[in-house]
Write a structure and sequence with these properties.
449 residues, alpha+beta, OB fold (Dihydrolipoamide Acetyltransferase, E2P), Chloramphenicol Acetyltransferase, 2 domains, seven-stranded mixed sheet, 12 helices, 22% strand
Length: 449
């Protein structure tokens, strides 16, 4: 009997993934736990092992397809006899779908097909198009082999919907919006107008939104639409901290670590979160409660060839500067090399993003939903800073300008973006002031180890 292998639940709100690679072919004998697929979620690339030692008889996905938890990806052991699953025919590629021209069903048969019950045979890419166009696959007349619905079938149906279908679609859309409606502290769902017809304006090029870029786009759109962002910025004098870093960087490097400014920022951030717990939080809009987290897992934004990734330093409050330097280096290397697993990417409670290596005097980072804040670091630069001149007792400057001298100091631009539903601007500035105090006084930072 055939055994259908579906995309399993990968945990922590992951509902879909993009197929990066199919490592088996139809008719191939595989062993249990042998890797058969590579799926990329919004967290990490995941190798999917075979749950059976059996023959692959049907592959339902191809690279580039977006699959959802519960979608059948591979069938093992013969013809799929389970009526609850899709038809057993292999997923045709787009070229085959477009080229196939089977006989059209009679009007009576077409009517019966448009009201059929049960799952509709269709490729994942066709299902994705149907969702984007708001088309019910149950109502589409199929033209593909074995009664399979093709992309052209979906487009034809979408173009031919009568006013009654449009009214029904509007009613359904309103029902979905009503179900999604949250309490007054959460932004509401709005209708997005269609884009202009850019194709009619001249030559354009379209490139698919895929992989990490697609996941980033979804996460940023979610964060920006759901969190009222406010940012506060300041400078930290890290002259003494940089001297300390330079003194110990080789020692840390010999232990396979990297003593970067980010390491110190993690330690200062965690110490500050312990004083200001509402920044290590999440707003539960449904229950109208603030969730205060007692763990300190710091996400670190990492620039990679695949796009922006955010691996997580777990239990940062329990680790020394040395331990953080070693772990952060290894974590960043795994992320950039595509070797980070789901455990590396999950569980963050707040995020740091450091663009200083690339330059910039400041920026306003977007909070990593559903967190309450994100700390940004730009490039530290030597700047002239006015310092009060010390005069002998009883002496004083004749004019106020003589009371200062300019000295070179290494200044680090910092920015804190925060959820204004949870914290106000005054508290955010106090929070940032505390981070700055610790970075400017390394001894104070080390007293918290």
């Amino acid at each position: 009997m055939a055994k259908a292998f579906k995309l399993p639940d990968l945990g922590e709100g992951i509902h879909e993934g993009e197929v990066l690679d199919v490592k088996v072919t139809s008719g191939q004998q595989v062993d249990e736990d042998e890797v058969i697929l590579e799926i990329e979620t919004d967290k990490a690339a995941v190798e999917i092992p075979s749950p059976y030692s059996d023959v692959v008889t049907d592959i339902r996905v191809e690279p580039g397809d977006v699959v959802h938890v519960g979608d059948v990806m591979v069938v093992f052991g013969g013809v799929d006899e389970n009526p609850a699953e899709e038809a057993p025919e292999a997923v045709a590629d787009e070229a085959t779908e477009s080229a196939s021209e089977p006989e059209s069903p009679s009007p009576g048969e077409a009517d019966a097909e448009s009201h059929r019950e049960g799952p509709v045979p269709a490729a994942p890419s066709t299902r994705r198009l149907a969702r984007e166009l708001g088309v019910d696959l149950q109502k589409v007349t199929p033209s593909g082999p074995g009664g399979r619905v093709t992309k052209e079938d979906v487009r034809t149906h979408a173009e031919g919907q009568d006013a009654g279908d449009e009214d029904a679609a509007a009613v359904e859309a309103e029902r979905v919006r009503s179900e999604r409606k949250l309490s007054g502290v959460s932004p509401q769902v709005v209708d997005v107008p269609p884009l202009p017809d850019y194709d009619s304006l001249g030559l354009v090029e379209r490139m698919p939104l895929r992989s990490v870029r697609r996941a980033t786009a979804k996460q940023m759109a979610l964060a920006w639409s759901q969190i009222p962002h406010v940012s506060t910025q300041d400078l930290a004098d890290i002259t003494e901290l940089e001297k300390l870093r330079q003194r110990h960087r080789n020692e840390i490097r010999d232990q396979d670590g990297a003593l970067t400014l980010t390491v110190f920022a993690v330690k200062a951030l965690v110490a500050t979160l312990q004083e200001f717990p509402k920044f290590n939080a999440t707003l539960d809009a449904r229950s109208e409660e603030i969730i205060l987290k007692r763990t300190y897992n710091v996400g670190i934004a990492v620039d990679s060839e695949r796009g922006l990734l955010v691996p997580v330093l777990k239990d940062a409050d329990q680790k020394s500067i040395l331990e953080l330097a070693i772990e952060l280096k290894a974590l960043a290397e795994r992320a950039r090399g595509g070797k980070a697993d789901l455990q590396d990417m999950q569980g963050g409670t707040i995020t740091i993003t450091n663009v200083g290596a690339l330059g910039g005097v400041g920026f306003t980072p977007i909070i990593n939903y559903p967190e309450a804040a994100i700390l940004g670091m730009a490039r530290a630069r030597v700047q002239p800073v006015a310092k009060a001149v010390e005069f002998p007792e009883g002496a004083a400057p004749t004019v106020w300008e003589d009371g200062y001298e300019f000295v070179p100091r290494l200044m680090l631009p910092l920015v804190l973006s925060f959820d204004h539903r949870i914290n106000d601007g005054a508290e955010a500035q106090r929070f940032l002031n505390h981070v700055i105090k610790l970075l400017e006084n390394p001894e104070q930072l080390f007293l918290r180890l």
